[in-house]
Design a protein that fits this description.
- The chain is built from 18 helices and no strands.
- By secondary structure, it is mainly α.
- The protein has a domain of 125 residues.
- Helix 3 packs across helix 12.
Length: 384
């Protein structure tokens, strides 16, 4: 049963370009479906999560990560009486704006874009769904509902101060009330992101040999889960033991968010989605105890995985790819495919042109960026 503070598709604020709604799908279901069918969503299958996409077939990519986030988000939304379709749409869209090579590529592109307003992957996701997906006859982008756009823009909380240019551009035409918190559905998507990567990065790091089961069994939450598996299945093999332990870690995080958020929502007095936006604090949270434990896990992952020597070598290599592609395209934009040429010709100044180049590079998959870099520089992509 849907709670009073859930987002109601029948009371949605509409789309920037009015459309006749479907007779068999709610507006949020339609948003979710448009995201799934977007070109940018398909490209996530060849974009880095932590490991560069071609380093192994079993590591998470941005696509599999987004699917895992959506699964967690639907579960939590259902338990809290929220709208599962809006929650799922946000979860599936939250990483659309990521560059090739994950946060490494984003950092490199941001450096290149500093003279032109910088680059932010959350704002780029908004740019994709409001402008860069150009498949529909009546509008650019996906023409998503106000609620879905708001949730993508604000799922990590209110956006204040100087806005990223891509977000400011959208907000001028469709005020997303960036100073408030987003709906509870958006907040669920944000914490589901944390749950998914905290869990699967442990799994991928183990697979890569960056640390051992014994080492992560020293971590809070994780150690108790390994101990429970050892009690229940003392003779199981190492791979099953690992999987059983980490699925329990997943369960601990999900259960904690559900229990904590139920209490926060009940105590908030919120009776509508507008009440949730105006509370001034998020109502979907981890408990303070679990959050403290997750900080220990995140510190471990940062040191042993995200900044592992082998990962840092690869970071330097792929940063060079982005750093060298950007000036090539800026100085000779006709190197970009023909469908970009109309935008190039309409660019009024270097900043507008740089932002088009940024859009193009940000949309690349890992392997396309490597191939294009090899084509334009004569380098060997196998050495990157």
């Amino acid at each position: 049963m849907r709670a009073g503070f859930a987002s109601d598709p029948d009371r949605a604020r509409g789309r920037l370009v009015p459309e006749e709604e479907s007779s068999f799908r709610s507006c949020f279901m339609r948003d979710r479906d448009r995201i799934i069918h977007a070109s940018a969503f398909r490209r996530l299958k060849h974009k880095t999560q932590v490991f560069v996409e071609h380093e192994g077939d079993n590591y998470r990519t941005r696509l599999t990560h987004s699917i895992e986030v959506a699964q967690v988000a639907r579960t939590i939304a259902g338990a809290l009486g929220l709208n599962p379709e809006l929650t799922e749409a946000v979860a599936l869209a939250h990483d659309l704006g990521h560059t090739p090579f994950g946060h490494t590529g984003e950092d490199a592109l941001h450096e290149m874009m500093l003279p032109y307003g910088g680059f932010d992957h959350n704002a780029q996701a908004i740019r994709i769904v409001t402008n860069l997906e150009r498949h529909y006859a009546e509008f650019d982008g996906l023409n998503l509902t106000w609620e879905t756009l708001e949730a993508i823009a604000k799922h990590n909380g209110p956006v204040t101060g100087e806005l990223p240019w891509a977000l400011a551009e959208c907000n001028t035409g469709f005020d997303l009330e960036l100073h408030t918190h987003a709906s509870a559905e958006a907040q669920v998507a944000a914490l589901s992101d944390d749950i998914a990567y905290n869990n699967h990065d442990l799994h991928d790091g183990l697979r890569a040999g960056l640390f051992t089961d014994d080492e992560i069994a020293e971590l809070p939450i994780v150690g108790a889960c390994y101990a429970e598996v050892d009690r229940m299945y003392p003779d199981t093999d190492a791979y099953r033991r690992r999987h059983e332990a980490l699925r329990r870690v997943f369960g601990v995080m999900v259960s904690d968010v559900i229990d904590t958020s139920r209490a926060l929502l009940a105590g908030s007095g919120a009776e509508s989605v507008e009440d949730v936006r105006l509370l001034g604090y998020p109502v979907v949270q981890f408990s303070p105890q679990l959050w403290a434990q997750l900080k220990v896990i995140r510190k471990f992952l940062f040191t042993r995985m995200y900044r592992a020597p082998s990962v840092m070598v690869k970071r330097a290599e792929v940063s060079k790819v982005v750093e060298e592609l950007f000036p090539i395209y800026l100085n000779d934009p006709k190197q970009m495919p023909a469908r970009w040429h109309a935008d190039i010709e309409a660019a009024g100044d270097e900043t507008a042109l740089a932002r088009i180049v940024s859009d193009y590079i940000a949309g690349m998959t890992d392997r396309f960026a490597l191939q294009d870099h090899a084509r334009l520089t004569g380098s060997d992509p196998a050495r990157v």
